[in-house]
Design goal:
The complex is a heterodimer. Chain A has helices spanning about 10, 45-50, 55-70, 90-105, and strands at about 30-40, 105-115, 120-125, 125-130. By secondary structure, chain A is of the alpha+beta class. Chain A has one domain (about 5-135): N-terminal domain of TfIIb. Chain A has a four-stranded antiparallel β-sheet with strand order 1-2-3-4. Chain B is α/β, with parallel strands linked by helices. Chain B has one domain (about 10-270): Rossmann fold (3-Layer(aba) Sandwich). Chain B is globular. The chains are: A alpha+beta, B alpha/beta. Chains A and B meet through helix 2 and strand 4 of A and helix 4, strand 3 and helix 7 of B. Chain B: InterPro entries: DNA_methylase_N6_adenine_CS, Methyltransf_25, rRNA_MeTrfase/Polyamine_Synth, SAM-dependent_MTases_sf.
């Protein structure tokens, strides 16, 4: 059954500030959330297994670390291993933790921050705004 | 349990997508044309039949999502995750409320547990590739891009929109923007790209698509190897449709007008 959707970490995982002039990598963006919510999204192992090879796991762990430090949730998020285990495709425990991090964490308000310039990208109503001005463009 | 599709056949999909509220005041500075429900339904349903795409394990990217007709269709067909990108705040607000409304508990007749995972992103599609950490992150990209009809001269007459364009960081000329959207889609996809273009432009669009595919990296690794048409990718014109620009979008039209559009399909075969 369906509900409001806000920025998930799967999207955060893909975003960089590298479209800004002078930024070398711009990844991962710091996650300076002010309002987050855990949503009970149904676990789908097949989706996680299929998507995982295309994601940057260091971005996932960095985002979870940011959120745990901000202490916005009642309970901290499950700890994630620093690298994806070799047996990930059959490791349900790992897949469930990854799913929680990627798909169940809604970031409603806050901002994403370029790790090199400090430039902030606001997140409002769960939608990150990655627009830059012409004079910032690479 | 995997996501159950919200619709079971083409007719249900068409009926659903025709309900998606569209732009009240389409902004000419962005060349906003919402995809009509029946066009979106036909397009997506045919793709699903041909490729068995939009499945629960797949991710989909909609470039220039507008009010969200295509996103709605991809979700209703069972896609695991759909991300919609648009430059315009008003469009994104409308899209967000449309998606929340359509996928709310009251709308599911069969009482199935329908889960739909989606995100919206406010960004300039022409700058998107630079802003994504890797290429090839999405199974399917769908896009109904702006047609790219405006030269600098035409746009400069609208001084207000020019100022807003500058603020939002989009270049004022829209010429070639349809190709820019297509190229962004080709970079972001590891499987399929579907885009809608004016039929008259298709030979040129297909030529540019082939060029973009040939340049595309075989994988996300650093070593690039050239892609070969036929072996590694295909570029096809898969449908021709009639598309009605209604009277409300009338800065240069006096009446409703039909234009012929075609769907371009790019498939990465390996």
């Amino acid at each position: 059954i369906f509900k409001i959707s806000n920025m998930k970490l799967i999207l955060h995982n893909m975003l960089t500030s590298a479209m800004i002039k002078g930024v070398k990598k711009g990844y991962p963006l710091l996650l300076r959330a002010t309002k987050v919510e855990l949503q009970p999204v149904e676990f789908d192992a097949g989706f996680v297994v299929h998507m995982l090879p295309r994601l940057d796991w260091s971005g996932v762990t960095a985002a979870v670390q940011c959120l745990n430090q901000l202490d916005l949730l009642q309970d901290p998020l499950p700890e994630l291993p620093p690298t994806v285990p070799d047996d990930y495709a059959n490791n349900e425990d790992f897949l469930r933790k990854a799913h929680i991090a990627l798909m169940q964490l809604d970031v409603i308000e806050g901002c994403l921050v370029c790790p090199e310039t400090g430039r902030e990208f606001p997140i409002a109503k769960g939608i990150p705004n990655m627009l830059i001005n012409d004079n910032e463009a690479a | 349990a995997p996501v159950q599709p919200l619709v079971r056949n083409r007719k249900q999909l068409e009926s659903l997508l025709q309900q998606v509220p569209t732009f009240a005041n389409p902004q000419s500075r962005w060349e906003q044309y919402a995809t009509p429900g029946e066009v979106a339904a036909s397009w997506l349903y045919d793709a699903k039949m041909r490729w068995n795409c939009f499945t629960a394990e797949q991710s989909v990217l909609d470039l220039g999502c507008g009010p969200g007709a295509l996103m709605t269709g991809c979700l209703a067909l069972g896609s695991g995750y759909v991300c919609g990108v648009d430059i315009d705040s008003d469009s994104l607000d409308l899209c967000r409320s449309n998606l929340m409304e359509l996928f709310s508990p009251g709308n599911d007749d069969d009482d199935n547990d329908v889960s739909a995972n989606w995100d919206l992103l406010q960004a300039d599609v022409t700058r998107l590739s630079a802003g994504l950490v890797h290429q090839r992150q999405f199974d399917v990209v769908v896009t109904n891009p702006p047609f790219g009809t405006y030269s600098d001269a035409k746009l400069s007459h609208k001084s207000n929109s020019n100022r807003r364009n500058k603020k939002a960081g989009q270049s004022t000329s829209s010429k070639g923007i349809d190709i820019a959207f297509l190229e962004a889609g080709i970079a972001a996809s590891c499987g399929l790209v579907f885009s809608l273009h004016k039929t008259t432009t298709m030979p040129f669009v297909m030529h540019r698509a082939r060029q973009a595919c040939a340049r595309k990296l075989m994988s996300n690794d650093d070593v690039a190897s050239a892609m070969v048409e036929g072996r590694d990718y295909s570029v096809s014109q898969v449908a021709n449709l009639r598309y009605n620009l209604n009277r409300s979008y009338n800065h240069h039209l006096k009446e409703s007008k039909d234009i012929e559009v075609s769907i371009l399909e790019v498939a990465f075969l390996r």
